[in-house]
Amino acid sequence: MNPITTLLNVDNLIMQALREDISSEDVTTNAIMRESKAGRADLICKQDGIIAGLDVFKRVFELLDDTAKVTFQVKDGDEVKNGQLLAVVEGDIRALLSGERTALNYLQRMSGIATYTHSVAKLLEGSNTKLLDTRKTTPNMRIFEKYAVKVGGGYNHRYNLSDGVLIKDNHIGAAGGVKKAVEMAREYAPFVRKIEVEVENLDMLKEALEAGADIIMLDNMTPEMMKEAVDLTKGKAETECSGNVTKENIQNIIDIGVDYVSSGALTHSAPIMDLSLKNLKPID
Questions:
Q1: Is 194 a residue of the active site?
Q2: Which label site among 17, 103, 187, 273 has the fewest CB atoms less than 10 Å from its CB?
């Protein structure tokens, strides 16, 4: 099983999603299936893209029926085509019917993110810039969405607020300035932690560099200002570009030379991939 389900124990999150969809019972399924009967259904792809989340899809059915079996024709990260058979799901028909929407919701969402991420990452091929995600994720879906970004060819920024020091504009306002914020972070955080500072202009950049920031996040700068900022930062800190970066405008920064570009759009704006569970039939 994929590390996303074994190492990080997502069963509780999947169970929450199932409880959301089945608060007391699946009244329709219980009405037409009064007893257990084995069945089979096909997972069909309905558009081209990158598949991600297959083990999560499978786990939904396993939690409803410990005899459920999913036979995959593809693996996470594969390019899939419209009309392609991706998997065959077998188990109690009641579990297949009750788990269908939750399983597809996970797989469609994760595959949509992987597909969009892949399309953006391809634009950065040939450069030294790495594509990062952000914390702009759906509540209780972060582990799934960040995994999908990696499948699509992106990299994960910090997972949550415990993972690293990132001093943003409101932190700077609360501290009373860039220098003071960096000094306080340096004093508090373990020495092995890098300190990243978000800056909006060159004056803030210079102050962050003088304070010894390890990473400079260039927030909502014009390409011209960003280029100047990268030149000023070379050899002193790593650079990250951020602020409304999408597939449509990322080419404006490819030649600037930033080390990283972070895009919230990878998780908050990716459309789902169209997938369907079809051809359900009893197994004689």
A1: no
A2: 187
End-to-end CA distance of the chain: 29
219 and 88 share a domain? no
pTM summary value: 0.94
Q: Note if 101 is an active site residue.
A: yes
Beta bridge partners of 155: 132
Q: 158-167: per-residue pLDDT in tens?
A: 999 999 999 9
Residue of 40, 130, 136, 180 with catalytic role: 136
Residue 26, Ramachandran bin (φ over 0: left; ψ between -120 and 50: alpha; else beta): beta
Q: Which of 62, 113, 123 is nearest to 271 (CA)?
A: 113
Query: For this structure, is 238 an active site residue?
Result: no
Do 148 and 92 sit in the same domain of this protein?
no
In the chain, DSSP assigns E strands to: 38-45, 49-50, 69-72, 79-80, 85-92, 130-132, 165-167, 195-199, 215-219, 238-242, 260-262, 275-282
Residue ranges of the chain whose pLDDT lies below 50: 1, 3-7
Q: Is 228 a catalytic residue?
A: no
> Pick the catalytic residue: 40, 46, 101, 150?
101
Range of the domain at 66: 3-114+271-282
Number of domains, the chain? 2
pLDDT tens profile 22-39: 999 999 999 999 999 999
Residue 236 annotated in active site: no
For 229, what's the count of Cα atoms within 13 Å in the CB-facing half-sphere?
Answer: 33
Residue carrying the six token digits 């998780």? 267
Choose the catalytic residue: 90, 133, 198, 240.
Answer: 198
